[in-house]
Design a protein that fits this description.
Distance between the termini: 38 Å
Number of strands: 23
CATH topology of the largest domain: Jelly Rolls
Strand content: 35-45%
CATH superfamily of the largest domain: Galactose-binding domain-like
Helix content: under 10%
Order of helices and strands: EEHEEEEEHEEEEEEEEEEEEEEEE
Oligomer: single chain
Structural class: mainly beta
Number of domains: 2
CATH architecture of the largest domain: Sandwich
Shape: globular
Largest sheet: 10 strands, mixed
């Protein structure tokens, strides 16, 4: 089983220790009943996160500095870190997921603050994956297992696994990732992991264009979603922006198909979802460029879990110049990919 960086997407991307061990586990009845109650909300994953078997205690920086949430915050400078006396193998982290299909697992296997920190602490070599879903009685039941092996390198890696279907029409489930082997640290024995992400299978979702900054006669915003590449929206380059909604869906990526070269085409974007923004650059090439919405709670699609009140804002900060109309920007189509449907 191999792994690869997610290069195909336009994307962001002290010692003595006291052991802190969580009492939560998939076998703990209190854990099962508590989270079964939470799962009654269809939008649970937007507020859920991660829980780990243990993490390093920290007083100076804050008690939860090294806990499981630091492995799903999208920040390579933070990490889930185990106590120094941990054997690493057998430690686990559990992530909440909506009804979905688990397709891949992604990870930055060490502490990617810098090369020195990455090598100083132990890194993940292999894991076992156990998926569980809620049944009609709101009890967790096993639905599939897989394994994954990672290379010892300081970059995001994505490993393909056999697909696992999680959940039914109403409820999702949980995925437990158990460390089975590690690359040893140069200075410290304990494991540190900057990022863990469950990559869910994608499907097409239809975005709705709520507003645009401006539009030219005959090139209105309705042409952005008419499934016709011969038509296109045109607006002023200055202040160019789009407001989208994809109600009920967990959106993992949006696709932007630029207009003809006579017009300016989007180059640098700022995408804002749920008050979180990131900037990225598109290639100057024909066809759809896919823009990843960064995950916020450990699974792809968690960065935008849309409701009828939640817009997805796209600002065009820079453009590739047009040959005839340099002050006008054009886009043929806006598309979207989602990983879950959570209801309106």
């Amino acid at each position: 089983m191999g792994c690869r960086p997610r290069s195909c997407y336009v994307s962001m991307l002290g010692l003595p220790n006291r052991r802190v061990r969580s009492s939560w586990s998939l076998e703990n009845p209190v854990f099962l009943s508590a989270f079964a109650l939470v799962s009654l909300s269809l939008t649970t994953p937007a507020h859920a996160g991660a829980v780990a078997s243990s993490f390093k205690a920290e007083r100076r920086l804050g008690a939860n500095t090294w806990n499981a949430q630091s492995a799903i915050d999208g920040k390579p400078e933070t990490c889930w870190q185990l106590p120094g006396e941990s054997s690493n193998k057998g430690e686990w982290i559990i992530l909440d997921v909506p009804k979905s299909t688990l397709d891949r697992i992604g990870m930055i296997v060490g502490w990617a603050k810098d090369e020195e920190h990455f090598k100083d602490y132990a890194r993940v070599k292999s894991v076992q994956i156990e998926a569980m879903a809620y049944d009609e009685n709101n009890e967790l039941q096993p639905v599939g297992t897989a394994t994954a092996t990672f290379e010892d390198k300081m970059e995001y890696q994505s490993v393909d696994i056999d697909d696992i279907q999680i959940g039914d029409d109403l409820f999702g489930g949980k995925v437990k990732i158990t460390i089975t082997d590690v690359y040893p640290g140069r200075d410290y024995p304990n494991l540190a992991v900057s990022e863990i992400r469950l990559e869910l299978a994608e499907f097409d979702a239809a975005p709705v264009v709520e507003a645009v900054s401006s539009e030219e006669d005959g090139h209105g915003m309705d042409l952005l979603v008419d499934d016709n590449e011969r038509t296109f929206w045109v607006g002023d380059v200055e202040g160019a922006a789009l407001t989208l909604k994809v109600a009920g869906f967990s959106v993992s990526r949006i696709g932007i198909n630029p207009g003809p070269k006579e017009y300016a085409r989007p180059k640098k974007l700022r995408v804002t979802a749920h008050s979180r923004s990131h900037e990225l650059e598109l290639p100057d090439a024909p066809g759809v460029a896919w823009v990843e919405i960064p995950a916020t709670v450990g699974f792809t699609g968690s960065g935008y879990q849309g409701s009828e009140f939640e817009p997805l804002e796209v600002e065009i900060l820079e453009v590739y110049p047009g040959t005839r109309f340099p002050d006008k920007v054009a886009i043929r189509e806006i598309d979207a990919k989602a990983t879950a449907f959570e209801g309106f």
